[in-house]
Design goal:
Mean pLDDT: 88
Shape: globular
Distance between the termini: 29 Å
Structural class: mainly beta
Strand content: 25-35%
Number of helices: 1
Helix content: under 10%
Oligomer: single chain
């Protein structure tokens, strides 16, 4: 869904990495991948698995990447931290 949304907005060529990764005892865990961009993965996403969803768009002038962590439940998903709803100037 994330990749499709970015492609529909015209930035697909600038989204050059996976959508995110599984989170376990290591930050980049060995669980199933969220998409097939870099590695084809047929493993199922199991309930009570954690993932980062971190799309990035990298234009020639600048890039931006956002990350949320998600706990996948049997019939839903739960964002585990605060969701940023406004732009923060740095």
């Amino acid at each position: 869904a994330t990749r499709g949304h970015i492609q529909k907005a015209g930035y697909g060529d600038y989204f050059i990495h996976r959508t995110g990764h599984s989170i376990g005892t290591d930050v980049h865990s060995n669980g199933a991948n969220m998409d097939d961009l870099e590695i084809h993965d047929e493993r199922q996403i199991l309930p009570n698995s954690c993932f980062s969803i971190e799309p990035g768009i990298y234009l020639p002038e600048f890039g931006v990447r956002s990350e949320v962590n998600v706990l996948v439940r049997a019939k839903s998903a739960e964002v585990t931290g605060k969701i940023q709803r406004e732009i923060v100037t740095i």
